[in-house]
Amino acid sequence: MEFIKTEQQGHVLIITINRPDALNALNRQVLSELKTCVEGIDPEKVRCVVITGSGNKAFVAGADIAQMKSMTKAEGKEFGLFGNSVFSALEELPVPVIAAVNGFALGGGSELALACDIRIASDNAVFGQPEVALGITAGFGATQRLPRLIGEGQAKRLLFTGERVKADEALQIGLVCKVFPIEELIEKALAMANAIAANGPIAIRGTKVAIKKGLAMDLKAGLELEAGYFGDCFETKDQVEGMSAMLEKRKPEPFTGK
Questions:
Q1: Which one of 131, 184, 241, 248 is the catalytic residue?
Q2: d(CA 63, CA 77)
Q3: What are phi and psi of 194, to 5 degrees?
Q4: Catalytic (active site) residue 39
Q5: How deeply is 164 buried, as exposed, middle or buried, from its count of CB atoms within 10 A (0-12, 13-18, 19+)?
Q6: Can you state the angle between helices 201-214 and 219-232, rounded to 10 degrees?
Q7: Comparing C-alpha atoms, which of 209, 243, 241, 242 is closest to residue 226?
Q8: Helix-strand-coil percent breakdown of the chain, rounded to 5?
Q9: Cα angle vertex 24, ends 13, 11, to 5°?
Q10: Phi and psi for 137 in degrees, rounded to 5?
């Protein structure tokens, strides 16, 4: 791939958007390569994904405006649907995905981060949905994911004004959950990813699906759903080993996902 780099460290896969000359902007080729990468992830080998941008200036500065400028209505809709298919594939991965946001995350870059399960940011990170200043709406999911994450009022403020939000405010409004110095960001992301990967894979996958599906249900249905995934963990080797180790006051053997 030309614009996507991958590196696997143990059970953690690092995906880097590698187009630094364009601040890692998303054109169709970048999106196509990202989709191919995501669709090729094997949850038996990868237990957590970290996604970041190349360099220290930008996570992803947005979609490629030069490529979008002359699109027709039909082409614009198709591009939006394609971008959303890529981000939905990322969101629906059975394993957790951490966005390590290093610098600008604007437009499609912010939307890429929104499709991840956890967002952490460098202290120089800047988020924003500036599409309205270009005469367009957000097209890769911000009108849907942002209100669900930070609430309708805050989301409307950002989507209507195009205002940029620095890392400290992003933390305050719940857009990210941690902020670190830029030089520590990947180290901290990997520490979090390894902590996730060390836990029971069946339990992690069940937790992710229960949260995702449960948010679309009423509480009663969500609790029944949770009970099902809870029950599925029992009689697994991981559950037996984890509970045995706790009772025996020892560290469990590495979980196998069986």
A1: 131
A2: 14
A3: -70, -35
A4: no
A5: middle
A6: 170
A7: 209
A8: 50, 15, 30
A9: 5
A10: -85, 165
Mean residue pLDDT of the chain comes to 96
Residue with tokens 């949770």: 226
Which pair of structure tokens corresponds to residue 208?
A: 């992710």
- What pLDDT, in 10s, does the model give residues 65-88? 888 889 999 999 999 999 999 999
d(CA 242, CA 238): 6
Can you give 70-91 as a three-state secondary structure string? CCCHHHHHHHHHHHHHHHHHHH
| Residue whose pair of structure tokens reads 């950002």 in the numeric block | 158
Any catalytic annotation for residue 78?
no
Q: Of 77, 76, 8, which is closest to residue 37 (Cα–Cα)?
A: 8
By percentage, how much of the chain surpasses pLDDT 90? 96
DSSP annotation string for 226-245: HHHHHHHTTTSHHHHHHHHH
With a cut of 90, say whether residue 222 has pLDDT above it.
Answer: yes
Of the residues 44, 111, 187, 241, which is catalytic? 111
Residue 66: per-residue pLDDT? 84
The pLDDT of residue 48: 98
Three-class SS of residue 113?
helix
Q: Which two tokens stand for residue 156?
A: 């409307």
